[in-house]
Amino acid sequence: MSENIERRRFLKCLGASSLIIAPLGCSSVKEGESDPNKPHYAMVFDQNKCTGCGECKEACNLANNLPEGKSRLLMEQHSGGIEGQPCPHCGKTTECGCERKFVRVSCQQCKNAPCVTVCPTGAAHRDEKTGIVTMDAAKCAGCKYCIAACPYDARFINKETDVADNCDFCLNSKLAIGELPACVQKCRYDALIFGDINDPTSYISKLLRVKDSVRVKPGFGTEPSLRYIPIVKLGV
User: Fold this and answer.
1) Distance between CA atoms of residues 26 and 18, nearest Å
2) Do 184 and 63 meet the contact criterion of CB atoms below 8 Å apart?
3) Per-residue pLDDT, 4
4) What is the model's pLDDT at position 91?
5) Beta strand 124-126 with 133-135: parallel, antiparallel or unpaired?
6) Coil, strand, or helix at residue 48?
7) Residue 94: its pLDDT value, please?
């Protein structure tokens, strides 16, 4: 619960639909320019399909041997109501859950990653082969600079290793053996899609060409690789 509270700032720019998201600091995105000769791994979270079951989080914890009480990802639940205004369904002005939806909170795998920039030892770095932001445990001094620099509150110190941790798409667990990230494998509702957006034939590339998606806090210039397909109300 404490982790959920400290990361709620992350959710302020996610609304009920793309019409709500834009004024809050998110925007529609087209494919960013990157070196086409190298992979650019990204993940799409489809808010329309997520039921908040939490199985993705459990799979992540198991695959990456995370200590109890810590996770590389969180599933936040919030309603689509506007604070202070009555719910159009039940009339309540307090959170009622009539339009419950869930949001994935995790490392955004930024193309311009502040955590990498501020790390004094090179522990927070971009994997040379995949381009994924990850950690070199042998180099981490536990200074927490990367945690302070992350505008998404998505990093933490693993108390068992004393090393800063983040979602790296299961780089050293699942990807290392040719599998998809644990959360993607576990999601039974296809709410998570992972792949190389520099490959025009990949499913994720095809999906992003036909679906509107958003990124969190685009004004920061971090260019996140985690994309969100927001809930769009039919008839609006």
Assistant:
1) 9
2) no
3) 42
4) 67
5) antiparallel
6) coil
7) 66
